[in-house]
Amino acid sequence: MDFKEAMRQRHMVRRYTDRPLSAEIVKELDGYIGRMNRSYGLSVELKTEDSSAFHAVIKLVLAKGVRNFFIMAGKDAPDLDERLGYCGAGLMLYAQILGLNTWWVGGTFSRKRMAEISHGNRVVGVVAVGYGQTQGVPHKTKKPEQVGSYSGEEPEWFRRGIDAALLAPTALAKQAFMIKGSGKKVSIQCENGIFSGVDTGLVKYHFELGAGKENFEWV
Question: Which SUPFAM superfamilies match (predicted)?
Fold first, then answer.
């Protein structure tokens, strides 16, 4: 499975089995995280056999069986949310390739606990990871014309990019973004309040994966 296939197969999964992550899987994930942190100046961490990401009520109602998670964190900066969203998208797809399931959580995690263990970094979310009780189901999406527009005749790469962007997880599944293209120039605007930066990064990664980074440039 490659990243494009993983993008089509990945769905939000909130409930997990008690199957632990093997040492080999942890090594693969830590290796990916290390490369990502060095390249993008982040401090993402994988925590295993740790159920402290959520409060008790959330664990009972939503996050059942979550014992492994990524802390999405880094030194505070104006673009931190977008960088974490962008890199988190790739990390979730890499986990999917390894046979795991994921769930990006931007609001209902234990902020106090994550702040305590993130070494002074700002935490923008956590990503639950493990073996899901199910593989999840596709989320309801908007139509391509609701989130994308191209000036002139729309090229195939732009169409593929929009289709991929609609597969990206966004806060509350709002898909509150608009991608515009003209020639090889592409812009994105995301209006989702405190989640706009993370959503922008998540959607950018997916658009690039679908469109091909060689076909355009962000403006």
Answer: FMN-dependent nitroreductase-like
Spatial separation of the C-alpha atoms in residues 86 and 180, rounded to whole Å: 19
Whether residue 93 sits in one domain with residue 151: no
CA distance 208 to 188: 12
101 touches 129 (CB < 8 A): yes
**Which residue's entry shows tokens 């898909």?**
175
Alpha-carbon gap, residue 119 to 186, rounded angstroms:
37
Q: Report how far Cα 12 is from the mean position of its chain's Cα atoms.
A: 10
Residue 59 vs residue 15, higher pLDDT: 15
With 0.85 as the threshold, say if the pTM is over it: yes
The pLDDT tens digits for 52-82 are 888 876 776 678 899 999 999 999 999 999 9
Q: What is the mean pLDDT of the chain?
A: 95
Contact 158, 148 (CB under 8 A): yes
Domain end marker among 73, 106, 130: 130
